[in-house]
């Protein structure tokens, strides 16, 4: 029987907060149970196991990122959309490192298919927003896939290094970020000529 006040949504949100505070590896069923002052068994009526919990965290984080990206690019195109998208992505990653880490774990297709509509909506909306961003650059496959991979790896790598203090140089990190986004815009506008 579920404990009064505990819901799957509350548990997943608390686990995501815990991941942001202490890292994804710190999120266990036992640690989450301690956070709520209950026994581990109380959580199993809401989540099947730690893998299920982390999948749900990834879906929550995807919805949150999709909301931010969608708001950032709404009504924008080209370089303005790219800059807004890049800034929103970087800010989300830096302010929610545990949630972002959860998103890097591959979600099994059957888990995504079994998720309620709103839960499964996040990954789809991230993909759609990314696709909308690239429509302004008139890219189609295979160029589109290559460009998406380039941007994702650039954003991920830059923010990952920034998060661990990897830019130990007096040059302003924000200024370097802006130059990187400018360079990506230039590359995307000239992609077809780069072959």
How does this model look, in words?
- The chain has helices spanning 8-22, 29-36, 50-73, 78-95, 97-103, 109-114, 117-135, 143-163, 173-189.
- The mean pLDDT is 90.
- Helices cover 69% and strands 0% of the residues.
- The protein has one domain: Tetracycline Repressor, domain 2, CATH 1.10.357.10.
- With 195 residues, the chain is mainly α.
- Pfam families: TetR_C_33, TetR_N.
- Keywords: DNA-binding, Transcription, Transcription regulation.
- This is AcrR family transcriptional regulator.
Task: Please give a quick description of this structure.
Residues 5-65 form the HTH tetR-type domain. By secondary structure, this protein is mainly α. The chain has 9 helices and no strands.
CATH topology: Tetracycline Repressor, domain 2
| Percent range of helical residues | 55-70%
What is the CATH C level class, in words? Mainly Alpha
Radius of gyration, in Å, reads 19 Å
The beta-strand count equals 0
Largest sheet, described in full?
Answer: none
Superfamily at the CATH H level? Tetracycline Repressor, domain 2
Order of helices and strands: HHHHHHHHH
Instruction: Give the tally of structural domains.
Output: 1
End-to-end gap: 61 Å
């Amino acid at each position: 029987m579920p404990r009064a006040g505990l819901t799957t949504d509350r548990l997943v949100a608390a686990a995501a907060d815990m991941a942001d505070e202490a890292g994804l590896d710190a999120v266990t069923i036992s640690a989450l149970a301690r956070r709520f002052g209950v026994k581990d068994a109380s959580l199993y009526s809401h989540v099947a196991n730690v893998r299920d919990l982390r999948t749900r965290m990834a879906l929550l984080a995807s919805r949150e990122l999709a909301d931010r990206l969608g708001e950032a690019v709404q009504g924008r195109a080209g370089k303005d959309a790219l800059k807004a998208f890049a800034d929103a992505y970087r800010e989300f990653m830096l302010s929610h490192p545990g949630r972002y880490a959860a998103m890097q774990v591959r979600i099994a297709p059957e888990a995504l298919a079994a998720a309620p509509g709103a839960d499964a909506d996040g990954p789809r909306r991230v993909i759609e927003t990314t696709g909308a961003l690239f429509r302004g650059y008139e890219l189609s496959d295979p160029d589109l896939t290559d460009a998406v991979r380039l941007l994702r790896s650039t954003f991920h790598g830059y923010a990952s290094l920034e998060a661990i203090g990897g830019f130990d140089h007096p040059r302003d990190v924000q200024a370097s970020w802006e130059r990187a986004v400018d360079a990506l815009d230039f590359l995307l506008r000239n992609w077809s000529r780069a072959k």
